[in-house]
Amino acid sequence: MCEMDFLKKIRLYCDTLRHLTLRQLYYRVFYFIRGRISSAIRYELKTDSKISGIDSFCAYPLKTVKWIGSRSFEFLNIGYVFPDRIDWDHDGLGKLWTYNLNYFEYLLDENCTEEEAFDLMYEYMHAEPRLVIGKMPYPVSLRVFNWIKTMLRFRRFDPALVGFIRCDLVNLSENLELHVLGNHLLENAMALSFGGMAVDDERLFSIGYDLLEKELKLQILADGCHIERSPMYQQILLERMLDCLNLKTENHKHVRLRRLLEPVVVRLFSWLQSMTFENGQIPMMNDASFGISMSTTDLLEYAKRLGIQFPSNVAQMTDSGYRRYERDGFQCIVDAGDVGPDYLLAHAHSDTLSFCLNWHETPIVVDTGTSTYDAGPVRQTERGTQAHNTVVVDGMEQSEVWDSFRVARRAHARIISESDSHIRATHDGYRRIHVSHVREFRFQDGSILIHDEVKGGHRHTAYLHFSPDTVPVFSEDGSIVVEKLRFRFSGASKVLRKQYLNAQGFNRRVEAFKAEISFKGSLETVIERT
Fold first, then answer.
1. Are residues 60 and 135 in the same domain?
2. Which residues lie closer than 8 Å to 387 by C-beta, 6 or more apart?
3. Position 317 in a domain
4. Residue 489 within any structural domain of the chain
5. What is the distance between the alpha carbons of residues 209 and 219, in angstroms, rounded to a whole number?
6. The domain spanning residue 346 has which CATH number?
7. Domain of residue 360, residue span
8. Euclidean distance between the first and final Cα of the chain, in Å?
9. Does 347 lie in the same domain as 272?
10. Whose C-alpha in 99, 363, 397, 526 is 20 to 30 A from the C-alpha of 39?
11. Chain segment 116-134, per-residue pLDDT in tens
């Protein structure tokens, strides 16, 4: 590494770490030192444990996670067959693939039999002392849910496996992801609440409940958006909350949990419904991908089976910075907020003032999505500004995304004015090069007007990424026709048709077209019906 690269890396680290909270820094140091002194994760298996009296529960939704059987698995669109025993720490297909192996969500595949499910749990339990990935708090949290749900599915409560779950919960309580925070810590808290309720352990339940109560106040914004601002993670968290609400026990712990979670679930649903297009899909904004979470429709059906009542009107979107506009068949979601909380931008993309657009049920302008969490050129590209429907100045990033989950200098957005038919906003992501960018959307009968004003810099480029299901037609006059919509540009010096790779799930990308619009200072884009 040359001296310039080394100095840049140091600067990136400094600009990233300075935003962490004292709480995060303390626990990063604490866990590091403790890990060097003694084993932080201990197991003392008790074989006389049992699931407490289950009063009632609705059938948990089964999954379609491509359970193949016979030690064959497919996660993230990658299949693999273990020739003999399962290597639970298999490292040949990426860390996220191995995480999924340890989540055990495949136990809830409708094709997974009772015998197969319990054989897999036993195989894991006997292999556990020498494992690494499965002992990490996040996989532990998801495994607790999936093992308990599997036992409830088959009405079979094996004492040894229940004892193993209790050990998982005890060690989770001592290894909470307080150095990470965000959705990981919420998963820890919900696993302790759900698991503590199931095994009737007041101490474990209380640790989870108290942490959950505290974190929900910190992590859920006023408009119901989770603070990391990912529609996909919103769906994942909602499913976990519904799982908690589903379980009713004779120890009545579920009553306390329902009082805490039900109002939060209603708020999270309100925001999620605003972020869900008429075709049932969410925009792939920030880290989001197809085939990972339950759909909004399925989540709503699950919630209704649990008797959750929803208000007829959807709450107004505010703190998250996202806005939704519907008019004459247009459905447009605008991102006019910060990329996330400064102390946690692991799932943030450099996409300030980007937007996604559907025409009735047809996606037209889309986010490029997320196909990997592995550090490298693909991850860097998918998080970068050029992969989003916004303006790039001099080829620079609005927010300095780097590595897998880090952001150094980051853009902060500010809404200047808004109404039910327009929004005007700006951001400071280019302040370091003395550039300002203001973008305005106006929604009129039969058309959308987007006005970009950039002051400073040399090369101004706006990007539009079209759905891979469309074939945009670029005309000599610079206009573009997509489906039944025409895009016209005033102030553009050049409109180029280029290809890009659109993420259709993890490890699955398809070719699509994008427009690269060069301009200087001012650009007006009109989207209208043909």
1. yes
2. 349, 351, 367, 368, 381, 463, 465, 500
3. no
4. yes
5. 15
6. 2.70.98.70
7. 322-529
8. 54
9. no
10. 99
11. 999 999 999 999 888 999 9
Mean pLDDT for all residues in the chain: 93
Q: Rounded mean pLDDT of 195-208?
A: 94
Query: Binning pLDDT at 50, 70 and 90, where does residue 54 land?
Result: low
CATH number of 115's domain: 1.50.10
427 is written with which tokens? 């951001």
Closest CA to 204 of 191, 218, 217: 191
Give the end of a domain, one of 277, 305, 333: 305
Determine phi and psi for 286, rounding to 5 degrees: 55, -155
CB under 8 Å to 283, separation ≥6 — which residues? 231, 275, 277, 333, 356, 366, 367
Look at residue 105 in the predicted model and tell me its pLDDT.
Answer: 94
Q: How many domains does the chain have?
A: 2
Q: What is the mean predicted confidence (pLDDT) over 499-503?
A: 98
In sequence order, which residues have a C-beta less than 8 Å from that of residue 70 and are 6 or more positions away? 81
The amino acid at residue 478 is: G
Residues 38 and 124 in one domain: yes
Q: Which residue has the higher pLDDT, 311 or 430?
A: 430
Q: Is position 312 within any domain?
A: no
Chain centroid to CA 404: 14
> What residue type is assigned to position 510 of the chain?
V
Of the candidate ranges 37-41, 42-46, 513-517, the one whose mean pLDDT is the lowest: 42-46
Over residues 440-471, the pLDDT tens digits come to 999 999 999 999 999 998 999 999 999 999 99
Does pLDDT of 34 surpass 70? yes
Average pLDDT score over residue span 499-505 = 98
In this predicted structure, the answer to whether residue 159 has a pLDDT above a threshold of 60 is yes
- Which pair of tokens denotes residue 12? 């990136």
The token duo for 140 is 């532990």
CB count in 10 Å sphere of residue 57: 17
Residue 48: per-residue pLDDT: 56
Query: Are 332 and 298 found together in one domain?
Result: no
Measured between alpha carbons, how far is 355 from 470 in angstroms, rounded to an integer?
A: 17
331 and 300 belong to one structural domain: no
Residue 85: C-alpha distances to residues 88, 124, 164, 316, 468 (Å): 9, 10, 20, 52, 40
Q: Is residue 394 located within the same domain as residue 498?
A: yes
Structural domain ending residue among the three candidates 272, 305, 338: 305
Q: Return the amino acid letter for 391.
A: V
CB 146 within 8 A of CB 102: no
**How do strand 330-335 and strand 322-327 relate by DSSP bridges?**
antiparallel
